[in-house]
UniProtKB/TrEMBL annotation:
The keyword Transmembrane helix applies. This is Serine aminopeptidase S33 domain-containing protein. Residues 499-525 have a biased composition (Polar residues). Residues 499-534 are annotated as: Disordered. It comes from the Eukaryota. It comes from Triticum aestivum. Coiled coil: none annotated. The gene is LOC123134586.
Amino acid sequence: MATAGENSAAELLLRAAALVPLDRYALAALVLAAAFLYRFLELHVLGDLLRGLRGGRVALTFHPDSQVYHRVASKCRSLHGRYLATPWLASPHLQTLFLGIWGRPPSVTYRRQLYTVRDGGTIALDWLLASDWEAADGSSCDGTISSDDSTPIVVVVPGLTSDSTAAYVKHLVFSMASNGWNVVVGNHRGLGGISITSDCFYNGGWTEDIREVVNYLHQKYPEAPLFTVGTSLGANILVKYLGEEGESIPIAGAASICSPWDLLVTSRFISRKLVQRCYDKALAIGLKGYAKLHQPVLARLANWEAITSSRSTREFDHHATCVVAKYETVDTFYRKCSCANYIGNVSVPLLCISALDDPLCTREAIPWDECRANKNIVLATTPNGGHLGFFQGLTAGRLWWVEPVSEFFSALHDSPCMHRQKLNNICMQTQEHGLQSPLESSIDKGPYVNLMEDGMVAAVTNEDTNTHESLDKHNQAVSEMEGSDVNVQQNGITSVLQDESHSAVKNTSGTEDNVPSAQGPVGSQEQREELSTDKIRDAIAPVKKSINQLIRSQGRSVWWLAYIAVVTSWPLLGAIGFFLYRKKFRNSSPAKRLLRG
């Protein structure tokens, strides 16, 4: 009876379901699919509608006493407003995919230079000058920059497997050039149509290339302030470079866009969910495509079969990056190369922009406390934006983050907060990179060439053996032109110190002959004074020799070195004088009264 009742209930349920029209089922399925996609794609259209299409407010994190915020970031209107995403791209995944597939970039024509670094690698520097942008309106342009040009230069560091042709790079380059600034994109090794010319590949912690490029630009255009922008993995490289250099860096200001911050946390994040694993696989495909372009070199350094079989970025880093860069494990590579470890040492005004819904660089890796503790850093976060997307407007023709970067650099350029490299740091950095100066690169002698859309560009190297001689002649000519009066004074002071040094040596030898008579029971007062004077000269002679050597190497710091010598010598002279005249001091009547009291 129970079984018959159950069967009858099931039959009644099926009959009732059959009476429902099919269009109702289709509508219900559509609603369920929409809810699933809304959740899966992390859409925020309803949230934007509930906020009245005003967008999410930009949250700023900074030190309360930060002059970078009060004098620079506070003047940036976009940082104190809201960001509203394009309605039909109201999803971090849609924004990221749209940027990678299309992005609607402006038309940009670069001028290319090939730069050869000290290890033989080749970097493509793609320029867009402010004069090039003005020439688009019909005015003439020679496409060169004079060495005394004071127009600011913006150095762009692209992301993983990206180069100057990326849509977001073109948006940034076009915006900065339209504001009258010169922009150069420092493509990573092996990208931008350039072949690998050494056994060194770039990675997420490789800062040598940006260091050499910045040093070259600073020496080539000393009057032009340098600003840098890093995007995605390029932001990690940039912030790590800023932290490594500290005060000894010729960069006036910097911006970090969608940085991964902690590579280990980011690596675990992109392998957590289904949608993140899709991004991880897509990045691995891009890395294998990059490796395939340079198979002859990479196959010689690592296991090529293991590289081609990599299905994630972690596997690629295990088989390729760790082997070429000589890291023990992948986690070791991620920990050592994460820029979050270097934030505390950043001394350059730095604007950091991140989206809290970034599908690649999770908010879990953002170092909130470290950014708040550093007075030079201003962190701006938005609820939405995706990874480097931040599309705004109905037509998605603009990237929001480009505007605050432009405003921040403009306000910083007009403020006293702009970082300036100290003289002693410049000297230290020149000595540190003295093995091969960036000016020795063939970039000074290589012509500009047009950027090709397809095909590899052969690397240009220079085997000129007279490079060092030409550099010596150039430095000598510059020193003679800049400070002839200083050189005359320097030679005069040097000759005087040399004479005094020789006399001190002679007096020392004479002192050795007079030692027995000075130590005799019947020694005259004049002999004691001469002996004391000779001992003082003997003690000062090494100091004078050191000053002589320093003056030869640093002619412009003569008076500063003399001041240091005087200040540091007084305690030594006082100690020597007290030691020599302590008996006379004790026998004097004022000293006796002082000791008795």
